[in-house]
Amino acid sequence: MVPRPRLVCAPLRHVSPRAAFSARPFVPRGSDADASTDAAAAASDVLVRLVAAGGSSLEADLDRLFPALSHGLVASTLRALTDRGVPAERYFAWASLRRGFSPSAHAHNLLVENAGKLADYPAMSRALALMSERRLSLTDRAFAFLAPSGSSRSSCVEDSARAVLRVVEDVGGPCRASGVFSLVKALASTGEFDAAVMVIEETRRMARYYNVLVAARCKAGDFVGAREVFDEMRKTGCDPDANTWNYLLGCLLKNGRLAEACGLVESMEKSKTGEVPNSLTYEVLTYHACKAGRMDSATQFLDQMFLENLTPRVTMHSAFIKGYFYAGRIEDAHKYVNDMSTRARHSTNRNYSLLAKLLLKSGKTIDAGRVLHELTEKGLRPDHSAYVKVAKDLHKMGRGDLASELKLMFKRFSVQADNGRWCV
């Protein structure tokens, strides 16, 4: 009789390569989700029609028809009011007075957007003052109305941005800093760079503001435009910071311009900021090296980080594990997580759990169990979701003995937690 494998350390077997570096987002399905969405849309439609009609009995009608509110309903109603050009200030005031309900920061931003869409700057001023009073931050959603439509021109957008900036400056308070930043971000995200530069020039030339422009240019793959912003920063006496450099580096690597990326790294090392290369720089380099299958180069970057006493983030370890795994080098992926258990102990749990999930997904359930078993032998608790999935699959394949063995190991940590001796 051939002995059945136990959950002990053994070489991990080969898996066929698969090109993937990100997981699909979860999409809700089913009639329950559809029914909930339909009900919320219907309720929002009723609210919009009531608010649009106005009248002296509006608040009483709202009280009667909507005894309870949710943040989702309020947000969807505010968006619908803005889309239909209906002022939302009265509705927002009613919602704010509802017992047991307080509008979220997101709802406050939607109220600002509503006033902006209607060019009602007194209403915007009141909304901003309310946010400052409640110490809430503005986001770029508040200025989404500045996105140019088919008939609007950049000059019109710039005029609107200037009017908004005056309101933000007049209100001042805690909202000002987040307001200027979010205004720049909203304009840059829609390609209105001249308007965004105008805001920066009329407020304060800060690397934080310029970085928004650099990031937007890089996201669009426009390295030339990003470099122009970089050069403009230096000309105006605003020194680029680590984020500026890293945005440029990521843009070059993403577009396969490796020689220029290497030259940029050399420029970083010669820069006077003293902030670069930093841990994020090495993470960007490592991620792209792993994605390209250049694991030896990635390892060199990692070693350099440790030499400079920089701590790799969990995302960097994930890039290594996935890089080895999808290249079919499973033993190297296993060796990596084992080596990092001593060099970067804080990430050991996640590293082992990730490898176990990858093995399980590729159909190597027993190997996944071995990895989790090895983790528990180090005195560390596996990720709960990984443990549950592996145990279930072991049962399904008729290996209840191995599932029980894994369960006993996992149960030990529950006992330790009860005794206040939790290991992580």
From TrEMBL:
It comes from the Eukaryota. PPR repeats lie at residues 206-240, 241-271, 278-312, 348-382. Transmembrane segments: none annotated. Keywords: Repeat, Transit peptide. Belongs to the PPR family. P subfamily. This is Pentatricopeptide repeat-containing protein. It comes from Digitaria exilis.
